[in-house]
Amino acid sequence: MTRADAVAAVRNPLAFIAARWTPTPRTVQRAALAALVMSVLIVVTGGAVRLTGSGLGCPTWPKCTDDSLTATSEMGLHGAIEFGNRMLTYVLCAAVSWAIIAARAEKPHRRGLTRLGWAQFWIVMSNAVLGGIVVLVGLNPYTVAAHFVATSALIAVATVMWQRTREGDAAPRPLVGKAVQQLVWVLVGASVLLILVGTVVTGAGPHAGDSSEVERMPLDWENVTKLHAVLAWIVVTLTFALWFVLKAVDAPKGPLNRTRDLFLILLAQGVIGYVQYFTDLPEILVGLHMFGSAVTWIAVLRVALALRERPYDEIGLPSPAAGQTVGTRA
């Protein structure tokens, strides 16, 4: 490497890499998928922190203790779990960074993909700070809820980027009529409301995240849980109605398959929800329900994204016939 190359790499490392490496479309897809998988995994490990009562295993932030950056043996299992979750944030950052690099290096350069990658990066950074605030305020349930909502936003952006890696940049062409599109947006809105009420259920429920006295939301947990169940049934009903309408209008397989997938995921999530409710919230089932929440959100977004197609050939990318798969037709 020459001195000029070194200077160029320092000034603009992404441009330097892009000038010397062209990833295959499949590599870009896998990088985006890795970022999405990590965004779901961080939900699972965050749930493990809460469900094992390790939320204050590291009692301060950004250090683990006032005197140590890392967890110590004296802090036991709780300290190891909380510190491990913090360290996983760096793995998430690495996955998002890989997605940004791959998107920037793809030829031709697609600015939209790179922007989606950077959006994930800044959400991760802001959520890391929010996670520190959660610790500093002693697991205040409102900050915990905000922390989960921010992660849901990260999952949304990661899902969109993953989808965009498998389609072109031409103007989107709708595959269904306006009435069907409006029904899907109602479904998305109901799903957002379901997630928000779910954070309230957690904030008012018994799993406070630490064995010490932790503030809870001053709400009747039973009533909030019933509201959450009603919203879940509304989402299920909307999904079934959407599937019926798509069949009636002879919609393409993409939207139909995504709606079917969502319906099955919702049924599984509902079974877990009811079982955990009637068995006094065992930790393993609550953890599965949190994982199911992330998967359900991805499935809802995939339904919305399946309502249109964006061809490859208008931007010079390889066509589906050359080995690519258009997500809306899969």
From TrEMBL:
Keywords from the UniProt entry: Cell membrane, Disulfide bond, Heme biosynthesis, Iron, Membrane, Metal-binding, Oxidoreductase, Transmembrane, Transmembrane helix
Main localisation: membrane
Localization: Membrane
Membrane-topology descriptor: Multi-pass membrane protein
Residues annotated as transmembrane: 31-51, 87-105, 117-138, 144-162, 183-207, 227-249, 261-278, 284-305
Example of a GO MF term: oxidoreductase activity
One cellular component (GO) term of this entry: membrane
Domain of life the protein comes from: Bacteria
Biological process annotations from GO: heme A biosynthetic process
InterPro entries associated with the record: COX15/CtaA_fam (IPR003780), COX15/CtaA_HemeA_synthase (IPR050450)
Biochemical pathway: Porphyrin-containing compound metabolism
Annotated signal peptide: none
Protein name in the entry: Heme A synthase
